[in-house]
Amino acid sequence: MRVMGLDETGAERFAVPLPHGADPETLAYDLGYLIERPIEAFRDPSGELVGSFAIRPLTGDARPSRRRAGRDAELRLAKDEVPTLRQRIAAYAVVVSPRGLLATEYSSTTAVVGRWGMPGGGIDADEDPRATAVREVQEETAQTVELGDLVAVQTSHWVGRSPTRHAEDFHAVRLIYRAVCPEPGDPVVLDVGGTTAAARWVELAQWRHVAWTANWRQALEKLLPS
Q: Mean of the pLDDT values across residues 96-110?
């Protein structure tokens, strides 16, 4: 993935690869800029995935802090294990409708079984990120949505053992979009046997009472009304 910074005039100030384990905010900061918001994610003519961000020059701003990735202790590696590098870029949608917020429960194929998040998943080779988000919502909840803006890019980096017991140096990059569901129905998981065990609508006034993953609780605190 490549990170592109655009100033207030729309001029490109930098376009650099996102190193394994890095976050766009800290990457931009080290280049002398502060990210103000994401703009869009797209594939360039070569097929490379690009994330563009609105930026401004630093004016005494503190360096963005990286949140620690939460992993269970039993997933840690032995000292002599060599993990495999893995970067996963995925697209998700924060979907709202008259029935509330669309939530998905993580299955036993994940490290956060029983916790809740937003529908979404990995971007296929040559797939547009927006198409990924719409497809994943349909597969995981059977809902048809109208996708809105890219509103957040969230990353996590950890070294440990995956749910399949493989040693991994894992870098997750999550592209998060807003979406609406004009005709909400009862959620049904169509992709049986995947990472989603169940799906449901959550009343917006009650969203804080759900057992979200730490990543999603942090994202929703910023994206949903207080």
A: 96
With H, G, I as helix, E, B as strand and everything else as coil, classify residue 27: helix
- In angstroms, what CA-CA distances link 126 with 29, 42, 137, 189, 194? 29, 10, 19, 25, 21
All structural domains of the chain, each given as residue ranges with its CATH number in brackets, are: 2-57 (no CATH), 83-223 (3.90.79.10)
Residues 169/86, Cβ–Cβ less than 8 Å:
yes
pTM of the predicted structure, to 2 decimals: 0.93
Distance from C-alpha of 5 to C-alpha of 145, rounded to nearest angstrom: 29
Mean pLDDT of 4-8: 98
90-124 CB burial, b ≥16 within 10 A, e <16: bbbbbbbbebbbbbbbbbeebbbeebbbbbbbebe
Q: How far apart are CA 113 and CA 100, in angstroms?
A: 23
Q: Are 184 and 98 in contact (CB under 8 A)?
A: yes
By the 8 A CB rule, do 160 and 150 touch?
no
Other residues' Cβ atoms within 10 Å of the Cβ of residue 148 = 15
Which positions ≥6 away from 122 have C-beta within 8 Å?
88, 89, 90, 132
